[in-house]
Amino acid sequence: MTVNALKRQPLYAQVKLLLLQRIGAGEWQTHDALPSEWELADELGASQGTVRKALSELVDAGLLYRQQGRGTYVAPVPGDWGDDARLVTPGLFTEQPDELAREFLGLSRLNASEDIAEALQLRRLAPLLRIRQLWRRHGSPVALDDVLLPAEVFEGMDARWLRGSAGVYGTLQQRFGVRLKIVSEQFRAEMLPREEASLLGVTGMVADVPALCLLRLSADMDGRPLEWRQRYCLTHQLAYTVKHG
Amino acid sequence: MTVNALKRQPLYAQVKLLLLQRIGAGEWQTHDALPSEWELADELGASQGTVRKALSELVDAGLLYRQQGRGTYVAPVPGDWGDDARLVTPGLFTEQPDELAREFLGLSRLNASEDIAEALQLRRLAPLLRIRQLWRRHGSPVALDDVLLPAEVFEGMDARWLRGSAGVYGTLQQRFGVRLKIVSEQFRAEMLPREEASLLGVTGMVADVPALCLLRLSADMDGRPLEWRQRYCLTHQLAYTVKHG
DNA sequence: CAGTGGTCTAGACCACGCC
DNA sequence: GCGTGGTCTAGACCACTGA
Lengths: 245, 245
Description:
2 copies of one chain form a homodimer.
Chain A: H1 11-24, H2 37-44, H3 48-60, E1 64-67, E2 71-74, E3 85-88, E4 101-111, H4 114-119, E5 127-137, E6 140-150, H5 159-163, H6 167-176, E7 181-191, H7 194-199, E8 210-219, E9 225-233, E10 239-243
Helix pairs in contact in A: 1-3, 2-3
The structure holds a DNA duplex (19 and 19 nucleotides).
């Protein structure tokens, strides 16, 4: 490597970081081809094998995909359900899931509770952005999201962006160059709280409904936690399915 | 490579498969060191880099672990909760989880329902082994497992083995040389059924309790589905936490 | 056919654990 | 100091894609 021996990081890690930054900066758009492994190797003064190792890790991380004989491409940003999670019929693991329609409900501000401040490594009562959105399947509400983001990091967030089709993760990538990665998720069964029941259209006689409550913590590629998401799912006839590695 | 060019598999894949078989056969025990990368390379007639690639994939798959400067070792078989799942306090992602005690309840036989037969790629009504076990935290029941396995594959299963500390996955590894890997999991919120409520010690006035219902499909390293597990978790004060890769 | 990713080698050097 | 895993290189060949 010509220059970048500044840090005592392995060369492939430096290459990976550099590519990560250039992808984040939008140098290549989704489904654009990167330069070939040899071109990158020349350009960065590393060998093809070293570049290949860096690219492989980015492929494993889901940021790139490869096609033999063609090239290496920028992968689309995963939607708000991630690459591996879907809502399908309980017990049927091979079922093709139906598409969910996203409905943006609102963008507001609030202050971090103690738990959330700790998880996001913020001070208590730190300002947060709250994004609410509803998921519908065949027109019926099936899930409700509360997405909490550190307000200082995402200053200038515009509700109009969130009405678009990109979802929260897509918007963060496009507007702020931040790519989130799920760190940890918690699942619980709860009786659906009143406010959420109302938003999910569960009212009247059948008000006492159990709901799947998902808590998600996500971080950027450097590991800085940036998202706390709470999702209520109606799993009366559906199951929250996660495919493993 | 000297001989093994039989299949049109890459050499590293053949090496990986060979090591997988030798590990499964018990050639090395848990925490035993494998031969060094160079020794394996000599022995198998491959280069160190090729052996390294095979080992790396086994490390990624969780079967081996490495210690720089020391060696490569056989990883312990993960417990019935997997490497990444725990029960912790909701909202606290960094909490150290308390240990769960496992209580074997029984081994019985039944015939596969349609769903299960399909998921396990068996004929309808195929015979299954059913293992029931209870999980306690600080003495209180918190989860109940029904593990269903194809009876023909695990003929000779002995209840005494399952009383031991190895758990289901440990027993399958030790007694049958089969290592399972979680393929997919489904989460739902349900009202706890009567039978499960009774086993979990939820009785009387507070009988109407929501429970987290987990459905898990696992396969061996060749991808053959071999386990259908249903788990009810009491998530009143706990959350089922999954760490992501 | 040329260009790309995918595999493999031999050899080198580094960083770490341990005696 | 020695043996281990961890990195890096240069060069080779294969398999696939698309003009």
